[in-house]
Amino acid sequence: LARRGRAPASAALSARPAGPGDPGPPRGSGRSPQAGMAAEDEAELSLLECRVCFEPYGPDGQRRPLNLPCGHVLCRGCVGALAGAERQRLECPFCRRLCGPAETSECRPLLQLLELLGPAGGGLASALGRSGGGAAAAAPAGLGLRLCLGGWGSLVNPTGVAACPGSGRLAVAHDGKKRIHVFGPSGFCLRRFGERGDANNDIKYALDVTVTSDGHVVVTDGGDCSVKAFDSEGRGVLAVREGFCLPWGLDAAAKSEVILTDSEAGALYRLAADFQRGELKKCQMIRSRLVSPRAVAVCQSSGAVVVVEHLKARGPSKGSTRVTILSAEMDLIGQMDSFGLNLVFPSRIYATAVAFDREGRVIVTDVYSQAVICLGKPEEFPSFNPLISHGLSYPVGLTYTANNSLVVLDSGDHSVKVYSST
C-alpha cells in the first residue's frame, strides 16, 4: 500500500525525517486568512483519514476505523489488506507490532467524531461549540505552534513528557531502544538513556516521566512495576521496586518529592528521596479508593493535585474518564466524569493527560476531539475553554515549561509540539 507524501509541518520538522502521520503546516503569523483557513481544513481532514490509504474514514464498510492492539488506527480495508488472504497475522505499518485481525476493535472516539462532523455537525469547531473564525476562535489564549520535534524514527509510541523547571529541557519517555530522550529548548536532542533491558537500571516499559527541581529524571516502569530515577547525565541513581502494583503517572512536587499514581492499586503515593545520594526517604500512600488513576499533576503554587481516573466500561460503552481535584491535604475539591462533563459542555471529554498552568488552572488533553481544553481553576471547576483544536492526532502527554509554553505529546505522529503565546 503506497503512501502519499506530505509537506513538513514547519522548518523545525524539515530537519528530521518525516514520520507516519506528520501533520500539515501549522497555523501561524505571516500567512493570509485564506491560507490559515486552508491549513485548518487540511488539519481537520487529516484527522479523519486512514494514514495508510489516505481515504476518509466512514461509519460503515471498508472505511470503518479499527484500533490495533498497539493503539494505532487503520480502516477496515487496510486491516484486511495487510492481513493478506490467510487473514492470520498483520504487522502494524507504524510500530511493526504483530497482531491478528480478531484482536482489532472499533475506534469509538473516531466514530463519535464522525457522527458529530456529519452533515448536521458542521465541522470540528462546531463539535467543540465554537464558530469557525480563524486562529482567534481556535485558540482563545493566543497560542501558536512554535516548535515541533521528534517524529517517527526519533520517538516510538511516546507515553510521557516533562519539563525541567530550571533548564527548560524536555524529557520524553517512549518505546525506543533508549527509553528517555532529553531535548534542549531549541529542539535539539541532547541525550538518550534508559536502555531497554533487564539490568538494574534498564527500563522495560516507560509509562510516564517527570523532572525534579534539581534535574533528576524519574520514570515509572510498567515492565517491572518500579519507579526509577536518573541524574542529568542519564546514570541510574535509585530504583524503587517494592510496594507498587502498577505505578503509572507521576509529577514532581517541592522538596525532592514525587506524587505518583498506582493504577492497579487505585492509590496515590508521595515518594520522597535524596536523589543526589540515591536514598529513598519515604514512600507513603496518601489517597486510596481511586479507580484506575493514571495521569497526575501537582500545582506548584497551591500544592493541589489533579488525577485522571479511567472508569470501567458499563454495558457496550468503552469506558470513560474522571477528573478529580484534591487539595494539598488530600481533601476532595472537585470531581466530574465524561458523562457529567458532556452534560455541561458540547463535547464528551476523554482525558488522557493533565497539567496545571502558571495561574493554577487545570488543563487536559481530549482524544475524542484531538484537543487541549482548559477546565478552569479548582474553585471554578469545571469551566470550558478550548486552547488547541487543530493539528493534534492523539495527545497523550502535557506539561508547561518555565516560560509558560504549553508542551503537548502527540502519540499519533510520535512528536512533541510546543505552543507559546503569539
TrEMBL record:
Residues 50-96 form the RING-type domain. It comes from the Eukaryota. NHL repeats lie at residues 150-186, 190-233, 390-422. The keyword Zinc-finger applies. Keywords: Ligase, Metal-binding, Repeat, Zinc, Zinc-finger. Transmembrane segments: none annotated. Residues 1-38 are annotated as: Disordered. This is RING-type E3 ubiquitin transferase. It comes from Spizella passerina. The gene is Nhlrc1.
